[in-house]
Amino acid sequence: MQNINDGNAMRMEISARSDNESFARVVVAAFCTKLNPTLDEIADIKTAVSEAVTNCIVHGYENGPGVIVIRCEIEEETVTVVIEDYGVGIDDVDRAMQPLYTSKPELERSGMGFSFMEAFMDSIKVESEPGEGTRVIMTKQLGSRSV
Which helix (H) or strand (E) holds 70? Predict the structure, then answer.
C-alpha cells in the first residue's frame, strides 16, 4: 500500500482500546461493500480485522495506551487491509504465527489469532521489530464468483 495507484483507499487511527475493536471491523467491512461481497466474505474480513486489532491491544500495547492505524485499499477485486501498532513488537514472528502459541498464557489467550487471519484471508504478512511495533498486511479477493 505504499503507492496508491488508481485504487480506492482509506486510513484511520483508533485508540488501542477493546471497545474500538468492533468499530474497526465495521468500518473495514463497510469500505469493502463496494465490491459486493457475500455475507461469508464480510464475516471473514471482520473476523480477521478483529483478531489483528485485538493483537495490537493485548500484545502490542499490553492493554495500555496506544494508537492503531488501519489502512485499506481496493484495487480491482482485491482488498488489502493493513493494521499497524507502534507497541512492543514481536521478537520471533515465525514462532508467534504458530497455532496455539501465545506470549500471554496467564491471560488464557488461545494463540490462534494469526491462524484465524490466515484462514479467513487469502494472504497475510507480518512485519515486526521489537520496540518498534507490528504491521499485519492481509489481502482478500472479493466479487469474483462464478455464476
Answer: strand 67-75
